[in-house]
Design goal:
Helices cover about 45% and strands about 20% of the residues. It is an alpha/beta fold. It folds into two domains: about 1-100 and about 265-350, Isopropylmalate Dehydrogenase; about 105-250, Isopropylmalate Dehydrogenase (3-Layer(aba) Sandwich), CATH 3.40.718.10.
Length: about 350
């Protein structure tokens, strides 16, 4: 079996971390008995430099024909004044591929508990998943601006809410059976529809899932006070954007976490959750573990769970051995961490 993966390195540290992730995917695939074919395209600022647009028709067509899309990072000060910003390409790609559910896991490895900005005893045992609605809400609503006034419209339909809630309920069934739906139903009409829709689904289709509701401000507080109390969180686009970045710091570095953006069918989009970090671009300092986790999520989406498990086992072994990049207090470079991980993949295969 050969899978076609479109690689979008993007900007800043994107090319560095995707180079590592590609090598890891290729080695895990070989060890698990299948192959991957990568097709690389410019995206974001790199595409603006080349063609004037962050997402070209050619790149979009390649993504639509792929089994999966792997993205590095987009954006940077260089393009702040560009007519079309790099991030516009990402929003357009998500919309075109219909990837409406963004899955962002955040867990704290025991060896990294003291790296968290919170006390180790607070983050111990944290293993949560945020399911963020990705293609609706205020980010995609009507925008208006005059000299003295501006507005952004937040709109959700019952169908948009139901489809992302279903993803979250199904994920909860695969985990510990608990789902927290986050909204602002005491203020916003869209949140009232959100709570009503999720509640009806839970009672009708998922009586086995323990469902509770939480206002977004309370959720933000509880993520810091008792992060291990959460299993799966489902929420709308902007709330999910904010809460998932907050949760990303629990393990100790935003460079550790990956994300999967999924729709009804392939391809999904897989990427680390961090930005392009232009301040360290080209210095081989980036943490590639987030991209590596995204690579494992990509392989899971293809049904290649053995390869994904190989990658995560090798990553855990590196954490236990203290083999880290500089942001975690280690001495590995970005490329060096990739070499070490491939070595661990191969050693584990020999031992097995």
């Amino acid at each position: 079996m050969t899978y076609r993966i479109v690689l979008l390195p993007g900007d800043g540290i994107g090319p560095e971390i995707t180079r590592v992730a590609r090598a890891v995917i290729e080695r895990a695939a070989a060890l698990s008995g299948f192959s991957v074919q990568f097709e690389e395209h410019a995206f974001g600022g790199a595409s603006i430099d080349r063609s004037g647009e962050p997402l070209t028709d050619e790149t979009l067509a390649a993504c639509q024909a792929a089994d999966a899309v792997f993205l590095g990072a987009v954006g940077g000060p260089k393009w702040d004044q560009a007519p079309s910003r790099p991030e516009a390409g990402l929003l357009a790609l998500r919309k075109a591929l219909g990837v409406y559910a963004n899955l962002r896991p955040a867990s704290v490895h025991p060896a990294l508990a003291d790296k968290s900005p919170l006390r180790a005893d607070l983050v111990a045992g944290t293993d949560l998943l945020i399911v963020r609605e990705l293609t609706g809400g205020i980010y995609f609503g009507r925008r208006e601006r005059t000299e003295s006034q501006a507005s952004d419209t937040c709109t959700y339909s019952r169908a948009e809410i139901a489809r992302v809630a279903r993803v979250a309920f199904e994920q909860a069934r695969l985990r510990r059976g608990r789902l927290t739906s986050v909204d602002k139903a005491n203020v916003l009409e869209t949140s009232r529809l959100w709570r009503e829709t999720v509640s009806e689904m839970g009672a009708r289709d998922y009586p086995d899932i323990a469902l509770d509701h939480m206002y977004v401000d309370a959720a933000a507080m509880h993520l810091l006070r008792a992060p291990a109390s959460f299993d799966v969180i489902v929420t709308e686009n902007m709330f999910g954007d904010i809460l998932s970045d907050e949760a990303s710091m629990l393990p100790g570095s935003i460079g550790l976490l990956g994300s999967a953006s999924l729709g009804e069918a392939r391809p999904g989009i897989f990427e680390p959750i961090h930005g392009s970090a232009p301040d360290i671009a080209g210095q081989d300092k980036a943490n590639p573990f987030g991209a590596i986790e995204a690579a494992a999520q990509l392989l899971e989406s293809l049904g290649e769970t053995d390869a994904a498990a190989r990658i995560r086992k090798a990553v855990n072994a590196m954490h236990e051995a203290g083999e880290w990049t500089g942001d975690l207090g280690g001495d590995l470079t970005c490329s060096g961490a990739g070499v070490k991980l491939v070595e661990r993949l191969e050693a584990e295969a020999v031992a097995a």
